[in-house]
Amino acid sequence: MDRAELRRLVVRHRHVAPMLSVLLAATDARVSISDADGEVILDRQTGDIPAGTTVERHPITVEGATVGWVEGPRPSAAIAAVLSYAGARETDKRALAREALDRYRELNLIYDLAEEIGATLEVDAVANVAVAEAGKLPSGGEGFLVLRDGPDGDRLSDGILGAIFEGEAEIVNDVAADPRSSSDDGSMASLVAAPLRVRGKRLGVIGTRSAEPHEYHASDLKVLTAIASLTAPTLDQAAVHEAVVRGATTDTDRS
Length: 255
Known about the structure:
alpha+beta, 4-stranded antiparallel sheet, 6 helices
């Protein structure tokens, strides 16, 4: 929670601001609310501070981080507790909203990808659609696809891509520091990639890469895994279809 969000919570939030006003109205205490950098958001100066009154300073904490302070006599502790609770609720609500939006985007991506790749039975066309979708991850980057039987298939024999081809989808945000990195991985500073598998057969690797250091997240991996799960069986079908067409063409030429 940043400074602007805390200010909105204290001054304009439709539930928190009125509750805060009630708490302050119940006392003549001088109370000051500031953000984590010390900038004052609310400074209630009323009445005199009785002799011997202890001025306390209590943190406003959200997800373990101090986002602000409440300073004043004894009621300041209750005010800090209320603001900490309200801040946590607001953070949870935003997280749920982001998750719902991510789910919506994932579903749209899956529907669009399924429609596009289902409209062709050519390996190159399927690969191009998949690469385009891999380049649309939330965190950005350039999509790529390497097929085991393609022109760049030797890249899957070792290095990070080789490990992912033989293993599971993963994020590598620092390629140079990864002990598996090989010369074939030199053009990538960061990547997220997933193996293309169908019925136990491994076809290749699909991923998104960045030439500059970049931070990919679990949400990127989730979307890419969905792309891989749709792409692999379609690539396999396209390869079978092309093999059948080549065989029919050869038979026709012989006759």
